[in-house]
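Final report, Chapter 2: Outcomes

The project's central promise was a pipeline that accepts a single protein chain and returns its three-dimensional structure in a standardized token representation, suitable for archiving and comparison. That pipeline is now operational. To close this chapter, we reproduce one record exactly as it appears in the project archive, with the input sequence first and the structure output second.
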Amino acid sequence: MIKTSSPNTDNNKVKIITKVLTSAIKLWLRTQLSHVSDLDVQIKASDRQFISGSIPGVSIYASKAVYQGLHITEIELYAEKIQLNVSSILRGQPLKLSAIVPVVGKLIVEEQDLNNSLSSPLLLTAISDLLIRLLPQSELNSQSLTWRKITFDNQLLILHGTTTSDTHETFFNIHLDLKLLNGQELQFTQVEIKGDQGVILERYAPDMINLGTDVDIQEISLKPGQLTCYGRININP
């Protein structure tokens, strides 16, 4: 007599594969993060899809995550059409993507978490590159510049810093009005630097920043105390 597997046996096999893949994804995510308070991963796929390594969808939620010094308050992601090396994963090897994965989601960064990121080289480099682009003729000396904090207002980003010379310390604030032009382009419609003695520099000429073709932002919102972003990004293998 030929024995066939029962539906319960097949379901148990799928549950085992699901558990292994979920654990592998969680492990991979944790290796990318230096800290995370809450991490939830949900995989949506059939047994055939699992075996072939084609995963229709994975949802990920994380809160209080830290990536290379960047503190993220909350993030919700949904990834589609994922191609994985399932056979290698089942043999205990690290998770690897086999193709580009489009990811849609929502990102929330509270003001305090962003200020906890001020020692992150990623954030400091981003701020430096932004100022070089927006203020090429600024009198601010970047070598003696220290960032004290960053605050959010209604579509307004405010950088609070100090410059130090041999004689004294000067406090200043940089006000940047932010506008989303399209999925790949951000625009700072007004740039204003205020110092101890009033306005140092004011520019109304719009400056545009291109985020690249792997990014498609649907909405970016700045309000007192919080930044929220909705959009899509491609994760490359």
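Archive annotation: The first helix runs from residue 7 to 32.
This record, like all others produced under the grant, will remain available to the consortium after the project formally closes.
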